[in-house]
Amino acid sequence: MFKVLVSDPISDLGIQKLVDAEDVTVDKKPGLSEDELVAIIGDYDALLVRSQTRVTARIMDAGKSLKVVGRAGVGVDNIDLEAATQRGIIVINAPDGNTITTCEHTFAMMMAVARHIPQAYLKTVGGEWDRKSFLGVELRGKILGVLGMGRIGSEVAKRAKAFGMEIWGYDPFLTEERAEKLGIRMSSVDDIVRNADFMTVHTPLTPETRHMISRPQFEVMKKGMRIVNCARGGIIDELALVEAADQGIVAGAAFDVFEVEPPAADHPFLNHPKIIVTPHLGASTVEAQENVAIDVSEQVLNILRDKPFLNAVNMPPIPANVLNKLQPYFGLGEKLGSFVSQLIEGAVEEISVSYAGELAEVDTQPLTRYIVRGVLSHHLGAEQVNVVNSLHLAKGRHVNIVVSNSHAARDFTNSITVVLRSKTATRLVTGTMLTGYGPRIVQIDRFTVDVAPQGNLILVSHNDKPGIIGSVGTLLGDNGVNIAAMQVGRELEGGAAIMVLTVDKGASKELIAKLVELPDLNKAKEINLY
Ligand SMILES: NC(=O)C1=CN([C@@H]2O[C@H](COP(=O)(O)OP(=O)(O)OC[C@H]3O[C@@H](n4cnc5c(N)ncnc54)[C@H](O)[C@@H]3O)[C@@H](O)[C@H]2O)C=CC1
Ligand SMILES: O=C(O)CCC(=O)C(=O)O
């Protein structure tokens, strides 16, 4: 008999299938502390949570029989994925069940902010009949900028069309074909910020999306913008938003999520006349809670019964013989994917991986998953993409994956080449494991290099002229950026060349822009590999 513990309030109807299963007993114990969970988890095979329970390494250590943690929802920020993976505990989520509900909450927020509904309600119930202070705006005819065109963003776009809005969307994986199908304009963050009347964010919180709307964006923002965030706190810089609202740039904002939840009592959003808030209610409908509970219950049953399952967000076990051969390359593969995904412009349409040398002789599928993870996690967030779901996520985004093997490695015992193709560009990176030195990037596009794939890198393309290395070094030095290592690759003396600098701390966007102004320097790009 399998034992399942439900430690958050999860829909009874949703978990009925588990309760009815003859080989399962279900205990519902919401609101337990970590200590209380540690004390009882040893009896259970599965743990079902929403977002309140923090599933820590301590709990998992005590869960000697624990095979699966099921999250009834999308975000798994409350589960220590690394610890689960290390202990062979499968973590699954329910990514589809609350899409429509969160999309509808976004509309509720957008309309409430357009018509000042919470503010007007407060005055009316307070006994005032104030019809002058709450002049609203229509949605019809307005430009709605959607940042993040995944599950929720796409549904928002579809519904906004019914309101007569013009939709401008931005997502690194948005292709022209998909934009056309959705009837939206493919745009950029900058265009949206400068032109939209309403803006809504539907991305995960990643190092790239953190504060993607901050002071520089508010400075150029169309006056009178109304902003909605029902995704994750921190995508929009909260303090910069308050400033922009006070300066009259932002006419209104509606937030369901906060950088720290719950927000402190003196949080500047609370009681701000232009900002309305809800306490992370995006997924809180009867239907969504039922959907996510049904989805997660079904997959937990499959896992307990040793059947194929969906929506795993961490790593499944790999056979020991395969693992031994591939493990040294997992980190390199992921870094190569991340490196080249930070170089490519435009939506990625194809990831092509070539294995050469001894690597071509083993089943490299697990390694391909790491490479694809590296490519996707730059945009989707490392927390959302793992080796279990990376290929599936790529397929869902219509990214073609091509794998080839060549038994003869050119200069190395083994090498991995990753080529990304978008509509407008093709970028290539090759890596290898050098005995005694570890992972190395040995080719970038057509240039031979020798770069350790880690930390903050700056990739510069330039013309091979005397003095250019010095001028780059001086500019970085003058701006307090220390160069730890430097590599130059060129085809011919005096021809096109690249420089890869490993720097001790990240360079600001302004400094990268200054680099490009140097004579004979064509492009500069910062790349983070952690
Ligand atoms: N308020 C709530 O209760 C809920 C919040 N959420 C949150 O909503 C967000 C969206 O969820 P889904 O649509 O299900 O996720 P999804 O994974 O389907 O879509 C996210 C999209 O963001 C895109 N993206 C990543 N980086 C970007 C960038 N720099 N600029 C523009 N787009 C970028 C990705 O390519 C992807 O298409 C997530 O943060 C999720 O945790 C989800 C459900 C409920
Ligand atoms: O379970 C909840 O209410 C939170 C939903 C959420 O934010 C998510 O699924 O990512």
Describe the SSE topology:
Elements: E1 2-6, H1 16-20, E2 24-28, H2 34-40, E3 46-49, H3 57-62, E4 68-71, H4 81-86, E5 90-92, H5 99-114, H6 117-125, E6 143-147, H7 151-162, E7 166-170, H8 176-182, E8 185-186, H9 189-195, E9 198-201, H10 215-219, E10 225-229, H11 238-246, E11 250-255, E12 275-277, H12 286-304, H13 320-343, E13 348-357, H14 365-380, H15 390-396, E14 400-406, E15 414-422, E16 426-434, E17 438-444, E18 447-451, E19 455-463, H16 468-478, E20 483-490, E21 496-503, H17 509-516, E22 521-529
Parallel strand pairs: 1-2, 1-3, 3-4, 4-5, 6-7, 6-9, 7-8, 9-10, 10-11, 11-12, 13-14
Antiparallel strand pairs: 13-15, 15-16, 16-17, 17-18, 19-21, 19-22, 20-21
The chain binds 1,4-dihydronicotinamide adenine dinucleotide and 2-oxoglutaric acid.
1,4-dihydronicotinamide adenine dinucleotide binds at residues 74-75, 95, 98-99, 102, 147-153, 170-173, 202-204, 208-209, 212, 230-232, 256-257, 280, 282-283, 379-380, 384.
Task: Please summarize what this structure is.
With 530 residues, the chain is an alpha/beta fold. The protein has helices spanning 16-20, 34-40, 57-62, 81-86, 99-114, 117-125, 151-162, 176-182, 189-195, 215-219, 238-246, 286-304, 320-343, 365-380, 390-396, 468-478, 509-516; strands spanning 2-6, 24-28, 46-49, 68-71, 90-92, 143-147, 166-170, 185-186, 198-201, 225-229, 250-255, 275-277, 348-357, 400-406, 414-422, 426-434, 438-444, 447-451, 455-463, 483-490, 496-503, 521-529. The two termini are 43 Å apart.
